[in-house]
Design goal:
By secondary structure, the chain is α/β, with parallel strands linked by helices. The protein contains 12 helices and 9 strands. It is globular.
Length: about 290
C-alpha cells in the first residue's frame, strides 16, 4: 500500500460513486434501478474495479457510496468495507463515508468508527437523505467530523436520481439548496465543506457561500463543463480559482469526457492544474509534510 504520488497523476477526481459491494451486486431499490438503467455496466463498479480504472486513467479519486435507507428502505453499502478496500489502493483511492444524520447517536458512533478506520471525509445527499443540512439534529454528527478535521461533501441543486419516476421517486430538491450550507459553515468553521455540482437552480447561492466562507469549496461534478453557466466559469477563473475542484460524478460522466469539455469551455489555461489537482490536494492534505 503506497500513498498518492502527485507527480505521477494527472488529476484528482473528488466525486466518484461506489455502486456495488465486494459481491459486485448493485442495490436494487426502485430509485437505484432507475439510475442503473442510465449507468448501465458501470453499476457494478466495486472499489477494486474503480481502483483499476483510475490507475489506468492515471488519476486519483475520492470514492463513496450514499446512505439512502431512509428513502429507499435499502441497507447501505458498508462504509468500513469501502474504507478497507480503498486502503489497499491508497496510491489512487481516497475513501469517504456516508451516514444518514437521521440515525442520531448511532450516526455519531458510525462516524467515529469510520474515522478510526481511515475515512478521509464524509458524503451527504440531503435530497436522498431527506434533511436540511442546517437541521440541528445533524450537528452532533458534524461535531464528530469537525473534531477529526475532515471535510464533508454535500450534494446541491437538482439531481438525476428519480428523474424518470413518478413524482421524482419521492426525491425533494428543496433539501439541497446551497444556502442551507451557509449556516453549517458558520457553525462549523473548522470543517471544510464541499458543495457538490453546479447548483441549478441556485448557482448564485453556491458562489456566494463559497466566496464568503473560508473553508467552503465547490466541486464541478455531474455536469459537462460545456453546460456550466457563465457566472460559474467567471468565478472559477477569478475569485474562486483556489476553491473549485475537479469532479466527474463517475459513472455519470467519465473523467476524460469532463476534462475534454473543460479544455474547450474558456477556463484559463494557467489554472488548469490548480482546478484538476492542486486545489484538491491542498484540501485533502495530499503531498503535505
Amino acid at each position: 500500500m503506497s500513498e498518492i504520488d502527485l507527480n505521477a497523476i494527472e488529476a484528482i477526481d473528488v466525486h466518484v460513486h461506489v455502486l456495488a459491494g465486494r459481491d459486485g451486486i448493485p442495490p436494487v431499490s426502485r430509485l437505484n434501478k432507475d439510475q442503473n438503467r442510465r449507468w448501465e455496466s458501470s453499476t457494478r463498479m466495486t472499489v477494486d474495479a474503480l481502483a483499476a480504472q483510475y490507475r489506468m486513467w492515471n488519476m486519483a479519486a475520492v470514492v463513496f457510496s450514499v446512505d439512502t435507507e431512509a428513502l429507499t428502505g435499502e441497507t447501505p453499502l458498508d462504509n468500513l468495507e469501502i474504507i478497507e478496500d480503498a486502503q489497499r489502493h491508497a496510491d489512487v483511492l481516497i475513501p469517504f463515508a456516508s451516514i444518514d444524520p437521521a440515525r442520531g447517536q448511532a450516526a455519531v458512533r458510525s462516524a467515529r468508527s469510520a474515522i478510526a478506520a481511515g475515512a478521509k471525509g464524509f458524503k451527504f445527499h440531503p435530497s436522498l437523505q431527506c434533511f436540511y443540512p442546517n437541521d440541528r439534529a445533524a450537528y452532533p454528527l458534524y461535531d464528530a467530523i469537525a473534531e477529526a478535521g475532515l471535510p464533508s461533501v454535500f450534494h446541491s441543486g437538482q439531481t438525476g436520481a428519480g428523474r424518470t419516476l413518478p413524482g421524482g421517486g419521492g426525491v425533494r430538491l428543496k433539501y439541497s439548496q446551497p444556502l442551507h450550507l451557509d449556516d453549517v459553515a458558520a457553525d462549523f468553521p473548522d470543517m471544510p465543506i464541499i458543495i457538490a455540482h453546479p447548483s441549478f437552480p441556485w448557482q448564485q447561492e453556491a458562489l456566494a457561500v463559497a466566496h464568503h466562507k473560508e473553508k467552503v469549496f465547490i466541486d464541478l461534478s455531474g455536469w459537462s463543463p460545456k453546460y456550466f453557466p457563465e457566472q460559474l466559469v467567471h468565478y472559477a477563473n477569478s475569485l474562486l480559482k483556489d476553491k473549485v475542484l475537479f469532479g466527474s460524478d463517475f459513472p455519470v460522466l467519465t473523467p476524460h469526457r469532463w476534462i475534454s469539455d473543460y479544455d474547450q469551455r474558456g477556463f484559463k489555461p494557467e489554472l488548469r492544474q490548480r482546478h484538476l489537482k492542486d486545489n484538491a490536494a491542498r484540501l485533502l492534505g495530499i503531498g503535505s509534510p
